[in-house]
Amino acid sequence: MDRKESDAYLRLDPARLPQHIAIIMDGNGRWARRRHLPRVAGHRAGVAAVRSTVETAARIGIPALTLYAFSEENWKKRPKSEVDFLMRLLCHYLKAEIKTLNENNVRLQYIGRRYELPAIVQREMAEASEATAGNTGMILTLALNYSARSEIVDAFRALAEAASRNGGLDHLELSEQAISENLYTRDLPDPDLVVRTSGEMRLSNFLLWQLAYAEIYVTQTLWPDFRGVQLLEGIEEYQKRERRYGGLGGDPGHTREHAKPREHAEAKL
Description:
This protein is of the alpha/beta class. It has helices spanning about 5-10, 30-35, 40-60, 70-75, 80-95, 100-105, 120-130, 150-165, 175-180, 230-240; strands spanning about 20-25, 65-70, 105-110, 140-145, 195, 215-220. It has a single domain (about 5-145, about 190-240), classed as Undecaprenyl pyrophosphate synthetase (3-Layer(aba) Sandwich). The chain contains ten helices and six strands. The chain has a six-stranded parallel sheet, sandwiched between helices. Helix 1 (about 5-10) packs parallel to helix 10.
């Protein structure tokens, strides 16, 4: 860690780190435009932000990190040349980052309709996931060809199919727990913190069910400029908030003390 990251880290309370952080990575195009570069240059620069963020999160002991990498809408609203570049960049990232993921004990997995992605991308995804499957530290989830609405549709479809195999719709079980158990993220806790870069104030069809009680942190930083220090600043802001879960401020079990500077902080740095 550099000096800024170390200072930000020392201000955190290790007992109250979020268990799951979700990040909407936004601003690659604006980053490139401000530099009079093609949009693909912004996407390429964003890889360094991914690496720094993943390493920092893993080293301070965040159990789960989910990155919104490619939405279903991207297929429809981006030029084919840009989509093709993103697919090539993804394949390159998956190959190049295996060593770093393993060094940081990070296990890689995915959410989204991956079967709709190009076959070569699916192969690279499977190989990278298999190469990190034995790691026991942070779970890094890439949301690829992802849509929260499609995820909920798929969950209901799975429930209906299970009911049909069990005798028909009279056996359809509908409850929050049943739906949660059929989401793509069934093996993950709901995010405590969602970070949005580039200053935009929207969720963009990302984890709509799971983010019901997540704290939202928006930074003006464009994604290619985002680094571990910005992640730590977001966690610091998260630790200053009172999470009420629909209750009143000061209710037992819902209050959170403001973050205090750590003494003798330790992490895998």
